[in-house]
Write a structure and sequence with these properties.
Structural class of chain A: alpha+beta
Largest interface: A-B, 84 and 82 residues
Number of helices of chain B: 2
Order of helices and strands of chain A: HHEEEEEEEEEE
Oligomer: heterodimer
Number of strands of chain B: 20
Largest sheet of chain A: 6 strands, mixed
Shape of chain B: elongated
Number of helices of chain A: 2
Chain lengths: ~240, ~350
């Protein structure tokens, strides 16, 4: 090999490893996080002195659902005693001009630690069913990300709609268009004072944000007697 | 003298009565005031009850009554029945939320407030403004005290206040009322954690999530504002997110989520939280690093290194073959030449 032949080979090697060098340089540039496009930033800080006048709105609880009168006729038939059943579904709609956002949370409307479906709806003083011992109850789920197992009931977010599109809250793992008992999306219904998020919006939602949800129950294995059982779920809209 | 004494007693009594009336008038700025306004019907009503304000933050003095106006508007073409009641507030069990109504909160002030209305019917497109009376006790503790006003609404049905509330779902609005008694308050806000959700991002995910958690052990609510600067492994600030006016209740832990969208496709990034509470004291904390490494990058790098090596090896091999062939040709020529 002559000296004249070696020089082109070195150049050729450099050219051969060029792509690797280019990749390394581009990787390093990208890893610096520098962007030619300016990054987005959050909303401007709002000073707080005295009263804050952010407002919000809610829809009274008789909207939505596929039943005759929406939320007002939410019910589960007797089929839940042997198989999974879900209610028609209900919609909560809210908006707020609050820059730091707003939310809808849910909790059991029964005072104290009385389980959902365990209070007497007629106020006669007697529980409509025994909630004292296992085997006689359709238990509330605890926590989120649960399947609706036998003797269980819970709440599931079906979807979020509206021009401002809310997101699923921290109390429900995700939205499911057609929740089945085997889906791991069912959320428990907490006691009063332990409300969890159903839906949220991180900034001002000036127009409409809606969350559609259903109540589901699977009474398989439960031994409750005949009769109508009822409970009330309280949904609260507030600023965050 | 016998005539003057009763006169003096009467004058003193009248003066005392006058002073008492003046005192009552001065301390009670909260005269009952309910205003109803019929709005213009809208061709496209939202069907919602508008509640204002959503949150009240106000300084109050022990034993001094005051009032806060609250406005409700029915933006629907049907009447609403509205009931209003006071409650204590406490920390939400979910740290992503602010507050929740509780029966007996540790710093509860539900019994300090009283709405001027309880049950009322709002006609279509009607607005009502009423006073929320605030009457802190004379021994009201220094610091922020937590109350709330629950606004329950249903479509009107039957006499006011008799609407069916046994349906499966009830939807309410909650006005948060935070009343601070001034004095030697204590500020004690800390950043307890800056946790990354995904330490390593290998796939096509283009966002990173950090949960920043604050703890307020002071005696007043804190409003947290500042930035989260995210630095690359070279030390430069690659991105910045604002934390604006995040409310952390006294005695509460609150988490806010910081999401960096349009994440670079490769790199290692570390967040640094720099925020201030209401006492303007700067707090900083560095969080967990996130490593972004798309699966194809190592493959591409290996290929970019191996392919040239293989090409060079193959070319050398070809050249070596040619050289040997040339050597053979030269040798036979020389050998042949030598034979001659």
């Amino acid at each position: 090999m002559s000296a004249k032949q070696r020089m082109p080979k070195r150049t050729a090697r450099l050219i051969a490893f060029g792509p690797a060098l280019v990749i390394a340089c581009v990787t390093a540039y990208a890893a610096s996080g520098v962007s030619l496009v300016g990054s987005a930033t959050g909303a401007a800080t709002v000073g707080v002195t005295g009263s804050v006048s952010s407002s919000f709105s809610t829809t009274p609880g008789t909207t939505g659902g596929s039943g005759a009168t929406g939320c007002a006729d939410e019910a589960i038939g007797t089929s839940f005693a042997s198989a999974f059943a879900a209610s028609n579904g209900c919609t909560v709609t809210w908006s707020s001009n609050n820059a730091t956002g707003s939310e809808v949370v849910f909790e059991n409307d029964n005072a104290g630690a009385v389980d959902f479906f365990c209070a007497d709806p007629d106020g006669a003083g007697a529980l409509p069913r025994s909630c004292a011992a296992d085997g006689n109850t359709v238990d509330d789920l605890t926590g989120s990300g649960n399947q609706l197992v036998a003797q269980g009931f819970g709440l599931a977010l079906v979807n979020t709609t509206g021009g401002d599109g809310a997101t699923a809250g921290t109390g429900v793992s995700a939205a499911d268009a057609s929740p089945a008992d085997t889906d791991s999306i069912w959320a428990g219904i907490p006691d009063q004072g332990s409300a969890v998020q159903l839906c949220r919006y991180g900034s001002a939602n000036a127009t409409t944000s809606s969350c559609n949800f259903v109540f589901g129950a699977l009474g398989k294995g439960a031994t409750q007697g005949a009769g109508d059982y009822s409970g009330t779920l309280r949904l609260t809209a507030q600023l965050t | 003298m016998d005539r003057i004494a009763p006169l003096i007693v009467r004058v003193v009594a009248l003066a005392a009565l006058f002073c008492a009336l003046l005192t009552v008038g001065a301390s009670s700025a909260a005269w009952a005031k309910i205003e109803r306004t019929q709005g213009t019907p809208s061709a496209d009503p939202t069907g919602r009850l508008f509640i204002s304000p959503g949150r009240v933050e106000s300084d109050v003095q022990p034993g001094v009554a005051t009032s806060i106006p609250v406005t409700l508007t029915n933006d629907s073409d049907g009447p609403f029945d509205v009931s209003v009641r006071a409650t204590d507030l406490g920390q939400a069990t979910d740290p992503r939320s602010v507050a929740t109504s509780v029966e007996d909160g540790e710093f509860g002030a539900g019994d300090w407030i009283q709405p001027e209305i309880s049950d009322i019917r709002l006609e279509p497109f009607e607005t009502i403004t009423f006073d929320l009376l605030v009457n802190p006790p004379v021994d009201a503790p220094i610091g922020t005290n937590l109350a709330g006003l629950i606004v329950d609404s249903t479509d009107a049905d039957g006499p006011v206040g008799t609407a069916d509330t046994t349906s499966m779902f009830r939807i309410e609005g909650l006005i948060q009322v935070f009343l601070t008694v001034p004095g030697p308050v204590k500020h004690d806000l800390t950043i307890t954690d800056v946790a990354v959700r995904d330490t390593v991002i290998l796939g096509g995910q283009r966002f990173a999530v950090w949960d920043v958690t604050f703890r307020n052990d002071g005696t007043v609510n804190e409003h947290v504002s500042g930035t989260v600067s995210i630095r690359s492994m070279f030390g430069n600030a690659a991105h910045r997110e604002k934390i604006a006016n995040l409310l952390v209740l006294r005695g509460a832990t609150r988490t806010t989520r910081v999401i960096w969208r349009d994440l670079p496709w490769v790199g290692a990034f570390t967040p640094e939280v720099r925020v201030r509470g209401d006492d303007a004291k700067l707090m900083t904390k560095t969080g967990d690093r996130v490593i972004v490494l798309p699966w194809w990058l190592p493959v591409l790098l290996v290929l970019a290194v191996l392919v040239p090596i293989l090409v060079i090896w193959w070319r050398r091999r070809q050249e070596w073959k040619l050289y040997l062939e040339a050597e053979e040709d030269d040798g036979s020529f020389e050998h042949g030449g030598g034979a001659y």
